Amino acid sequence: MWWWLKGRRAFSVLAWGLGAFAAAVAVLGDATVELPSILSGSANPVLFVLMAPIPLCAALELSLGSRLAEAEETATRRVRALDAGLVLGVCALALAVGGAVHLLTGDTYAVAAGRNVAFLTGLLLCARVFVGQAAIAAPVLWIFAVIFAGFSRGGHAAFWTVLPEPNGDLPAALAACLALASGLLLHGTVRPTETPSPN
Amino acid sequence: MTLHLRACTYAYRPWARPVLSNLDYQLPPGVTVLLGPNGAGKSTLLRLAAGVTRPRTGNVHLGDLPSRARAYRGAVAWMPQHITAMTALTAREQVAYTGWLKGMNRTDAWTASATALARVDLADQADTRARRLSGGQLRRVGVAAALVHQARVLLLDEPTAGMDPRQRRIFRDVLAALTDEVTVLLSTHDVADLAEESDHVTVLQAGRIRYTGTTDGFLAHAPTDATPGRRAEAAYTALSETSG
Predict the structure, then answer these.
(1) Domain ranges in chain A?
(2) I need a surface site. Which of A195, B3, B39, B113 has the fewest CB within 10 A?
(3) Could you say which of B81, B89, B101 has the minimum Cβ distance to residue A197?
């Protein structure tokens, strides 16, 4: 288990990603920036903290990609279950970090940032089944889609955006759980696409 | 226990031409060298035998164990053509991790990793980060990882590719030191280097078995005027041209 954790760079890359996420949530708070929306043609206030999950998602992708694929595919130990545990642990820590920041600062979106980590990680896991390590683009593209196409005139977020919803929003929480569960299911069951060997 | 591929067909995509077609193959005891040109299906056969790839039709068994069984994966070791270097692990940790993945406990895996690295003459690099090793050294890490958990069947995909002559000699010594209880199937393009030291030879061409039998039977295909020391190459060439 130690070598698995070390191999997944849990103590370096993941720790760094979690630290960057915590710092971003604490520093960015509820600050917003006016950005144009493609749909409404007007500028809308967008939360900086929507970006906070990116370093953690990138760290998770790097961590899950640091593997001995050949040995793990023929292992007698359940490595994918361990990976699922790692992902759940990171999401739980992200929520805990968000909760702690919320308690300390009262920021409205701190816990939501933790929830967004779970949602975007679900997207990441779904995408990496099909596109491998390029899957890191999925959460980034989602965030940009939300920022530039997710708000109507008046600044109301569309139902599909999930990310801008505040702490305690039940539909957003359910969407995050669903995305994460789908991602873990695909990660645990679907084998990566095989490429032919020249020999 | 014998490793047996029964009526195996495999294609990388459902619509693609099969790499292996209705292949029946029983791995004989001892060391078998798998020969064939690029694209013959050698690596695919090894992947099927390792259980990392499932055949579209047919099945793979070790004795009564199907390839999807956990006990099968514990009994079979596979060294792939491309050896991944784990960024965060040393050479010894990478070998020990492979042993742990195969079900060994941490202490046994750690002890066995030192022994396995010593067998491939890499003990002095045990604490070097795997990513800092040369291509030849990394292949030796791959061989050590295949040896670490005392598997009954070793599947080695081009184990000597990128090794210098001294490393190849060490590898041949490792093969020679394996007990009779271990069955080995290794693919190679080094016909002269390995074929004459094996017990059996299998030649694969275009996804079909062109020849399988004893090494003496294989060498008998060489022309009578073949240069001593190059008989294996001559036999392989003769077999390839006959099918051509």
Answers:
(1) 2-189
(2) A195
(3) B81
With H, G, I as helix, E, B as strand and everything else as coil, classify residue B48: helix
Whole-angstrom distance, CA of residue A49 vs CA of residue A47: 5
pTM greater than the 0.95 cutoff: no
Q: Which residues of B touch A71 (CB under 8 A)?
A: 97-98, 101-102, 145
Which residue range is the domain that position B24 belongs to? 3-242
Chain A hits for B19, CB-CB cut-off 8 Å, are 196
Tens digits of pLDDT across chain B (244 residues): 789 999 999 988 888 888 898 899 999 999 999 998 888 889 999 999 999 888 999 999 999 999 989 999 999 999 998 899 999 999 999 999 999 999 999 999 999 999 999 999 999 999 999 999 998 899 999 999 999 998 999 999 998 888 888 888 888 888 888 877 899 999 988 887 666 678 999 999 888 899 999 988 988 888 888 787 788 888 888 888 775 4
Count of beta carbons in the 10 Å neighbourhood of residue A181: 13
Instruction: Quote the number of domains for chain B.
Output: 1
**Is A74 at the interface with chain B, CB within 8 A?**
yes
**Tell me, what CATH number does B200's domain have?**
3.40.50.300
- A10 touching B, CB under 8 A? no
Q: Would you call B100 an interface residue with chain A, using a CB distance cutoff of 8 Å?
A: yes
CB contact under 8 A, A9 and B87: yes
- Judge: B103–A77 Cβ closer than 8 Å, yes or no: yes
Judged by CB atoms closer than 8 Å, whether chains meet at A71 and B101 is answered as yes
Residue B2 corresponds to which tokens in the numbers above?
């014998």
Across B50-92, where does the E strand assignment appear?
A: 57-62, 65-66, 76-79
Report how far residue B36's alpha carbon sits from residue A199's, in angstroms, rounded to the nearest whole number.
8
Nearest CA in chain A to B41: A199
Instruction: Tell me which residue of A49, A184, A50, A181 sits closest to A128, measured CA to CA.
Output: A184
Give me the residue from A1, A7, A72 closest to B88, CB to CB: A7
H or E stretch at B199: none
Is residue B69 within 8 angstroms of chain A, CB to CB? no
Q: Give the three-state DSSP class for B94.
A: helix
